[in-house]
Specification:
Helix content of chain A: 25-40%
Oligomer: homodimer
Keywords (chains A, B): Aminotransferase, Pyridoxal phosphate, Transferase
Number of strands of chain A: 14
Shape of chain A: globular
Number of helices of chain A: 18
Pathway (chains A, B): Amino-acid degradation; L-alanine degradation via transaminase pathway; pyruvate from L-alanine: step 1/1
Structural class of chain A: alpha/beta
CATH topology of one domain in chain A: Aspartate Aminotransferase, domain 2
CATH architecture of one domain in chain A: 3-Layer(aba) Sandwich
Largest interface: A-B, 140 and 140 residues
Function (chains A, B): Catalyzes the reversible transamination between alanine and 2-oxoglutarate to form pyruvate and glutamate.
Largest sheet of chain A: 7 strands, mixed
Distance between the termini of chain A: 58 Å
CATH superfamily of one domain in chain A: Type I PLP-dependent aspartate aminotransferase-like (Major domain)
Catalytic activity (chains A, B): L-alanine + 2-oxoglutarate = pyruvate + L-glutamate
Enzyme class (chains A, B): transferase
Strand order of the largest sheet of chain A: 2-8-7-6-5-3-4
């Protein structure tokens, strides 16, 4: 029989496992007696349902079947015997603070009195959820692809019909319900290659090097999977920025690779210094095998836009140190600050001459979820691999084939993003108007956010040069830090209090990583301008109140 | 500097790595001299493009940049230093035979003369690609969700509009372009739970136990991820049927879990015998820690439908032996044979009484890709977890949150599948007509396939009781086996020859597993009836010719 005992323990923050822990849980976790029954107070046999909530917020009806007179025995699959790599995964962007936000929303719907009437979720770059309207042309073509009967309909412009027909002709049985090739629909990969060539001033792009994906996250994890190997001191090390987008640390935990942290320079607008890369790399060589360098440009959560010089330095460093480059460029259209410009890693690589362009191995990632379209729900994306060994590429193709194909509606959407209406086409004017409006509003909100935050004593905020986030630094009084240490990291304590008092959901800086002793939060700049002003004012008032309360 | 040497070796079948190999490649693979340049003859610098093709069929333009006068050095990432677990992954359904089929299609387009005019791809369960038309109601609602302007349009029935409005209201910003909750849109999880309750005669289903997914494959791999742990003799063992759907073996290779094979009984219509489960389990306990039992019902690739008694026996076995049950039930509507009926594992589990229903830990999987809808491209699916430890469930929720959410159009589609038009709604008659026609045609083709194959000397075929495939056994002459052994497994040799001579693409039985010394292939029954008859005739003629040639 199974000797498992069900552990009785406080149902805590599910993201607080120590990332450096090895495959065993800390000894301090004492399992309960055999047959112990974990019952969060007041939570069972209620018929209520909440989204993505952690144990104390949920009703587990099947769990409650233990009340039917049958004694509940230990489970086969428990926190103690499950995959330890999965336990080490953390993902703050949808962590406990978001779960609490969802619960508060429910309480509001049920009439519970709060100091606010709605929760504003500025935790995630989800443009449509913040009220941004979809781009008409994209959605017209998607409707036509979904229900081709509409091709007979006069209300759709000819260019939308043409695009839909071309996509449908490339689909099995002319249906987006057929599987595509695992690498993505061939004509869409061609369109992506043309888009890249045009973007990069004519530098060639080979459709064979394009892999469509389920959002950029899917492609990023896939490339990391190929690169991870070794045990002990030979374990693959992957360099990621601090602060970082936590997909990276989560994927490394799951793949059991070594995270090598390099710090962005907050005092210099979150810029990247090759000296810091070198420091981090040389230190890491003592205990692992560094093989990969990940860059996010424009930055998430930090919003910086890398200069051409910086990118050149990074490429030179990658070549000298034999590192595979991963360039996360999903915010490539989101550049706002004067004097800033997006330079793709591929373009800079090829401009550095054949000594670089034929040697540096690289993958670059893009997505339909960000930029002006913000179509997160479709999970569209692509990667371009450069200088990848043909045998490894065959393995990559094999690996992606196991999941059959990326969602075809997302592939179709990506096709429209890389092949938008042209000046001589009927949808061009509307398309450009909608696109420009979205990007102009974002630029305005980027400026507004920086300006207002920098008027608040105790908040300092770098310019939001690009992407969709601000990552301001907050001074927390020592008393608040001491108070928080009883149960939470200080910036989580701050953000939770902000959520409870003002109904604003942010993500604590600790979810992205930050220099020891500093505190931040990430906030999207996506709310509509008037709402963003309100959010900024509420945060300002809260910060002043918080500072006073703990002084 | 990087000491890597690029290996020079024949570009072979990329799926032939020995699955039992440990983390190192066999010693017999000798790396080439440093700087050796791997150049598949005649393949580089051509501008042609092919889909998912292995090295010998591709042009690697960036690879060819080595010809620009710059000596090509060893790659950072090579077959020798990449993730060995990924190398061990095999997925025959989209393996080398399909890549050859795609190449032949291209040759036909280019005017190359062949003994046939089209390639018929009966290798994968892709209904729309085989000409099946999408169900009107599903696509109408998807078009409305994609482009809500159409809600003003009188051409759409009211029930389609109502469904679309309900889905949109549940989306952030009323857009399917917003991220959903990671577990899936709440109202859709409710609809799934109602669907399960109705299907299972009222046995309760809790929406908190429903996780929407990116097709069933995604959910299956996610559950396996939770369950895998341990090293050496403690490594998690997972029982899978032979023949199996190769997603399972591929996932186990990638997760470094131990595959425990149990054989289905071909002589008894591919039925499952608990004695065989016990044999396999007890043998495996000598070298690993068996924790999971995977069942596919109706069967893929074998098409059997399990009896209620068999399911009860399996559940009892799982409970006695402390195994987590994974029930792959994606073909639950695809049951054709008289006397056969689909019984869900959950229903049988709950009918066995609280001693079972409160204890056996289980996950059941479903998909929008099969049944009558065949909407593979949308990557919709769900799983229901039963009796899962609440703390493990919180880890599951955390894990799925890293990938943000399943594609929202796929979630919307799933909602329509679990909540189809009702008898009092305007779309009901058309919906039922379309649904019935698809399932009736499949039933007819299932029978036809069995009948015709069994008239061929050297082919024996069990009844296709359900699912979408036949897995007939083929007798191969010894001379053919000897001939094949020079480079291929014999059934791959057979299927490749069939593809070259008749233009029919099947998957060799070796891709699914089969008893030593037996040979099979998997063929879908999806081609339209007239085309299916042609396919069956061509295979018959080929088989007779093949047998004669090698006798």
């Amino acid at each position: 029989d199974q000797p498992a005992a069900e552990a009785e323990r406080p149902a805590g923050n599910m993201n607080t496992d120590d990332q450096s822990a090895q495959s065993e849980e800390p000894q301090s976790r004492v399992p309960g007696p055999p047959g112990a029954h974990f019952t969060p107070a007041g939570s069972h046999c209620s018929s209520s349902v909440s989204l993505c909530a952690p144990p104390p917020l949920l009703c587990f009806r099947s769990h409650c079947s233990a009340m039917n007179g049958v004694p509940q025995r230990g489970k086969l699959l428990t926190l103690d015997n499950m995959n330890p790599k999965v336990k080490r995964v953390e993902y703050a962007v949808r962590g406990p603070i978001v779960q609490r936000a969802v619960q508060i929303e429910k309480e509001l719907r049920e009439g519970v009195k709060k100091p606010f009437t709605e929760v504003i979720k500025a935790n995630i770059g989800d443009a449509h959820a913040m009220g941004q309207k979809p781009i008409t042309f994209l959605r017209q073509v998607l409707a036509l692809c979904s229900y081709p009967e509409l091709l007979k309909d006069n209300q759709f412009p000819e260019d939308a019909k043409k695009r839909a027909q071309r996509i449908l002709e490339a689909c099995g049985g002319h249906s987006i319900g057929a599987y595509s090739a695992s690498q993505g629909i061939e004509c869409i990969r061609h369109d992506v290659a043309h888009f890249i060539e045009k973007r990069d001033g004519g530098i060639p792009s080979n459709p064979d090097n394009i892999y469509l994906s389920t959002g950029a996250s899917d492609a990023i994890v896939t490339i990391l999977k190929l690169l991870v190997s070794g045990e002990g001191r030979d374990r693959t090390g992957v360099m990621i920025s601090i602060p970082q987008y936590p997909l990276y640390s989560a994927a490394l935990a799951e793949l059991d690779a070594v995270q090598i942290s390099y710090y962005l320079d907050e005092d210099k607008c979150w810029s990247l210094d090759v000296k810091e890369l070198r420091r981090a790399l040389y230190a890491a060589r003592q205990h692992c095998n560094p093989r990969v360098l990940c860059i996010i440009n424009p930055g998430n959560p930090t919003g910086q836009v890398q200069s051409r010089q910086c990118i050149e330095d990074v490429i030179r460093f990658a070549k000298e140190e034999n590192l595979f480059l991963m360039a996360d460029e999903v915010y490539q259209d989101n550049v706002y600050a004067e004097g800033c410009q997006f330079h793709s890693f591929k373009k800079v690589l090829f401009e550095m001459g054949p000594e670089y362009s034929s040697k540096v191995e690289m993958a670059s990632f893009h997505s339909t979820s960000k930029c002006y379209m913000g179509e997160c729900g479709f999970r569209g994306g692509y990667m371009e691999v450069i200088n990848m060994d043909p045998e490894v590429k065959a393995q990559l193709t094999k690996l992606v084939s196991v999941r059959l194909c990326p969602p075809v509606p997302g592939q179709a959407l990506l096709d429209l993003v890389v092949n938008p209406p042209q000046p001589d086409e009927p949808s061009y004017a509307t398309f450009m108007k909608e696109r420009t409006a979205v990007l102009a509003a974002l630029a305005e909100k980027a400026k507004l956010t920086e300006q207002i935050f920098n008027t608040v004593p105790g908040i300092t905020c770098n310019p939001v040069q690009g992407a969709m986030y601000t990552f301001p630094r907050i001074s927390l009084p020592q008393k608040a830090i001491d108070k928080a240490k009883e149960g939470q990291v200080p910036d989580m304590f701050y953000c939770m209090k902000l959520l409870e008092e003002e109904g604003i959901c942010l993500v604590p800086g600790s979810g992205f990583g930050q220099r020891e002793g500093t505190f931040h939060f990430r906030m999207t700049i996506l709310p509509p301008t008037e709402k963003l002003k309100l959010v900024l004012k509420k945060i300002k008032d809260f910060h002043l109140r918080f500072t006073k309360e703990f002084s």
